[in-house]
Amino acid sequence: MAEFTPTVPARVLPPVTLRDLPDPPSSKWRIIGPGLVGAGVGLASGEFILWPYIASQVGLIFVWGAAIGIITQWFLNMEIERYTLATGETALTGFSRMWRHWGLVFVLMTLASNLWPGWVTSSATMVTYLTGSNADSVRWIAIGMLIVIALGLTLAPVIYTALERVIFVKIALVATLIVVSIIFAINADSWVELGKGLTVGARFPVPPLEFALLMGAIAYAGAGGGQNLCQSNWIRDKGFGMGAYVPRLVSPVTGHEEAAASTGFQFAPTKENLARWRQWWRFANVEQASTFAMVSFVTIALMSMLAYSTVFGKEGLANSIGFLKVEGEALQSVVGPWFGVLFWVIGALALFASAMGIVDYTSRLASDTIKTVYLRDKPASVNTIYFYTVWAMVLIGIGILLLGFDQPLILLVFSASFAAVMMFVYSILLIILNRRALPEAIKVRSYRLGALIWSVAFFGTLTVIVVIQQAQRIFGGS
After folding, report:
1. What gap in Å lies between CA 453 and CA 461, rounded to an integer?
2. Distance CA 352, CA 119 (A)
3. Residue 75 in contact with residue 114, Cβ under 8 Å?
C-alpha cells in the first residue's frame, strides 16, 4: 500500500510514531483484568445502597434500568478503549489533541467529585457496625484507611498490579456474599420478581422515588463519571494493543522507572495490522462484556434481590449508609447473627477497595494529563506526579475529616452535576475523536456510532435534570 500518513492530530501535541500493532498474546487469560478492575472499583454505594434501596421501595420492577445503564457504559468503555488500542494514548490525551485543555477540564471535574473521602467514611461507618463503636470513631478509622490507601498505591512496584489484586479479592468476597445469600437469604419470590423486572413486569416506578434518582441510578450503574475514562489507563498498563509500547506506571520509591514517550503511536492499516486489530478488538469487547458488564449487572441484581427479600416494604429506610445497618440487622434476624456480621465485613472491605480505586483512577487521570500536556519537556516523570497526587488527595481528605466537616452541600452538587456533565461531553468528544483521528478501517461507525449518539442524548438529558434539581436545592426552589 502507499505510504501511510498518520491520522492522529498533531496541532497541539507532537505527532505519533508509526509502529506495527503488536500480536495479541497466545494466552488471553493472563491479560484479563481491566474490565474486572472497572467493575470492582464501580461496585460501591450504587450496588450496596442505591439499587438495593430502590428494590426496598418499589421491588425489582426497575432492574431493567441497570441493564440499560450497564450496556450504555459498555459501549462508552469500548470507544474509550478503541482509541487507546489504536494509539497507546489515553482518551484524555486524544481529547487534548483537539483542544489543549480538555484533559485538564475532565481532571478538575473528577477531582471536584472525589476530593471528599465519602467511600472511605462509608467503609469506616460499616466497621463501627461491627465493633459497636460510636459515630465519633468513624473519623479516625477513615483517616487510618486513607493512609493505608496512599501507602499501598505509592509503594507498590507496579501500581496496576497491586490495584488489580485488591479488586480481585474484593470481587471474590462479594461473590462469596452472593453465594451465601442465595443459599440462606434470597427467597423464591425475589427470583420471580427479578424475571418480571426484566420482562413483562418491567416498568418505570412511580413516586415515592424521585425521577432524578432513578435516572441517576441508570446512568451510574457499573461506573460513571471519570472512572470510565480510566479504562484507557488500565488497559494500557495491562499491555493491550499499542499500549504494549508504553511503560507501566510504577512507584518512584520501589519500582523501576523507564523513560516513557509522552505521546503515542499509530499503525498503518496494512492487511497484517488489520488482522491483528480484529483479534485485539474482539478480545477487548469480550473482556469488557464478560467482566465489567456481567459482574456489574449480577451484583446489582443479586444485592437488590437480597434487599427485596429482607427489607422490602419496611418503613423509614434512607438512601444512605444507614440503609446498610438496617439491612444487616434484618439479615441477623432472618438468617442469624453471623450473616449480618459477614454482610458488614464484606461491605466494609468492598467500600475500602472502591475508595482505593477512586484515588488511583483520579490520580492516574491527573498525572497522565499533567505530564503529557503541560510538563512534557520537564524532568518530572508521570510516576512522580502520580505519587504526589495520591498523597495530596489523601492529605486533603484527612484535613476535611480532622476539621469535622460533614459532606458540604456544594461537594454534593459538584459530584452529582460533574459526573453527568462529564459523560455528556466526552460522549460527544469520543464521536469526534474516533471518527476523525483513526483510519477509515477502524473508526467508529454503524450501531456503535448510534450507541454514542444515544449516550449523548441520555446524559445530556440527565445533565439538565441534575443541574435544575441541584440549583433548586441550593437556591430554595421547589
Report:
1. 12
2. 7
3. no
* Model pLDDT for residues 87-131, shown as the tens digit of each residue: 999 999 999 999 999 999 999 989 988 888 888 998 999 999 998
Residue with cell 483512577: 361
> How far apart (Å, rounded) are the C-alpha atoms in residues 43 and 301?
12
Name every residue whose Cβ is closer than 8 Å to that of residue 272 and which is 6 or more positions away in sequence. 20
Q: What long-range pairs does 320-324 form, CB within 8 A, spacing at least 24?
A: 320/49, 321/45, 321/49, 321/122, 321/125, 321/126, 323/49, 323/52, 323/53, 323/56, 324/48, 324/49, 324/126, 324/129
Helix axes 211-219, 51-58, angle to 10 degrees: 140
Q: Which of 81, 177, 171, 62 is closest to 448 using CA atoms?
A: 81
- Tell whether the model's pLDDT for residue 251 goes beyond 80: no
Long-range contacts, stretch 462-468, CB < 8 angstroms, 24+ apart: 462/215, 462/216, 462/219, 462/420, 462/423, 462/424, 463/417, 463/420, 463/421, 463/424, 465/211, 465/212, 465/215, 466/212, 466/216, 466/416, 466/417, 466/420, 467/417, 467/420, 467/421
pLDDT (tens digit, 9 = 90+) per residue, 279-298?
999 999 999 999 999 999 99
Number of C-alpha atoms within 13 angstroms, CB side, residue 386? Answer: 28
pLDDT by residue (tens digit) across 218-250?
Answer: 887 888 888 999 999 999 989 999 999 998 777
Give the count of beta carbons closer than 10 Å to the beta carbon of residue 299.
27
Q: What is the C-alpha separation between 360 and 393, in angstroms, rounded?
A: 10
Amino acid at 277: W
